[in-house]
Amino acid sequence: MKIRRILATAVAVAVTTPAVMLSVTPAFADTQPAAQADAQARSQAKPTVKELEKAAAEAQKAYETALAAKEAAYQAVEEAFSDTAPHAVTAKAARKAAEDAATAKDTADQAVVDARTALDDLTEDATEEERTTAQKALSEAEAAAATAATAKTTADADAKAAATAADDARIAALRADNTAQKTLDEALAAKKAADAALARAKEEEDQGDGECVDEPGLTTVVTGFPSTVTAGTSTTFSVRVSNGTGKDLGQVLTYAGVHATDKTGVKDIATYLKLTWSTAASPKWQNVDGDLYIDAIGGLKQGSHADIKLRLDVDAKSPAGQGLTFIAGDYFNEDGSCGLTPDAAVNEFDIKAAAVKPVTKPTPTPSTSAPVAGSGVTPQGSGSSVPVNTTSGTLAATGSSDTTTEMALASGAAVALGAGAMFLARRRKAGADA
Is 60 exceeded by the pLDDT of residue 318? Predict the structure, then answer.
């Protein structure tokens, strides 16, 4: 079965089209109308294998550059903590000078004590010259002690400053190494995504033209999904899968995935989110399987529908951010024919961090808006729903923020595009393996 170039398209757009990257904010802000978004998505050309090879080569080069930078940063850390580092040598010399100054002060102080003792020990028959000499020795010893004390104070301050400078140099090296590691991690992730995009594009060429058909008559309608969820709470919503294909379907699967990032749009926080499902026949909540499919419907007669409840649990430790759910439907028949909803219902939502004090669990507001026929895209209460068109293989773009930096925007776009593309590509692959 042919696997469409979903991931390839997303990666190519994220890598080669800055205008598109800047049109997608990390917050998945203000969504365009579905028709406009779909038209824009369809206008993006599907990348060729040659273009993907170029993107993969550039990602490889960026990774190699980041790896070299990380190695250099680690070497800088080694040098910064070495005893032969300039700041270490300076600090050591300053410590030695402070120790010598302390010794000199102790010696000078002892000289004062000795001079005063010599003066006090003079007998009554001591000559005036002896008393004058003893007094002079005491005065000179006291002056020398004062100079030694000043020298010690200065040496101590110099040693402290040198030690601080050495610590600052070491901390700076560690910070640079940490930054280099993060850059390397990001470059590696981009390289893997580009390699995967290229591999899938080549796999598509090798597999020929056979594929599951797009089936607009198979629809997924989502209701009760809120625009905001709070960490530490659960949100329940519903999915109705309807068969308007004009034929009975042998096995119908519901595809469900969730993706989330923090407020920057860069850090993936999906590990804090979990989807479970239940039906009237199977009321116990069950985890969505590893392929993101829910096998709860079975066959579906023409004109009939099936309802599934989904629950989104957000871990109490989840940071604030934004999320997306992807809901779609696929079918498989015993004769080998298969099909899938052309569009996935994409529901955007904000994630609020858990409040210091317990808060009331948000109550979802069901939508009364009717979905576009055959689109599989459902408006959800006050939240927004964006179609992911699986025919053109692109994720609809969203509005942009003028205050977000270009790099953060690009990262947010790559995450958003990659999320939708990866979910849909995995959906195709799971169908291909079924």
Answer: yes
- CATH architecture of the domain 17-45+213-433 equals Sandwich (2.60)
What's the confidence (pLDDT) of residue 7?
Answer: 36
The overall pTM is greater than 0.85: no
Q: Are 187 and 412 in contact (CB under 8 A)?
A: no
Query: How far are the Cα atoms of 83, 163, 361 from residue 73, in angstroms, in the given order?
Result: 18, 22, 47
The CA distance from 164 to 157, in Å, is 11
pLDDT in tens, 209-223: 446 788 889 999 999
- HSE on the CB side for 298, CA within 13 Å? 3
Q: Which residue has the higher pLDDT, 321 or 404?
A: 321
> Residue 82 and residue 88: Cα distance in Å, rounded?
7
Question: Could you tell me which of 419, 256, 258, 398 has the C-alpha nearest to residue 341?
Answer: 256
Distance CA 345, CA 308 (A): 15
CA 32 to chain centre: 25
254 contacts 296 by C-beta, under 8 angstroms:
yes
Q: Give the pLDDT confidence score for residue 9 in this predicted structure.
A: 39
First to last CA, the chain: 10
CA-closest candidate to residue 216, choices 377, 384, 40, 395:
377
- The token pair that represents 224 in the structure block: 């009760």
User: Listing from the earlier edge strand, what are the strands of the sheet with 273-278?
Assistant: 218-223, 234-243, 305-314, 273-278, 286-287
In the numeric block, which tokens belong to residue 106? 């102790």
| CB burial string 233-245: b at 16+ within 10 A, e below | bebebebebbbeb
Longest dimension (CA), the chain: 135
pLDDT confidence band for 369 (50 / 70 / 90): very low
Give the pLDDT of residue 1: 32
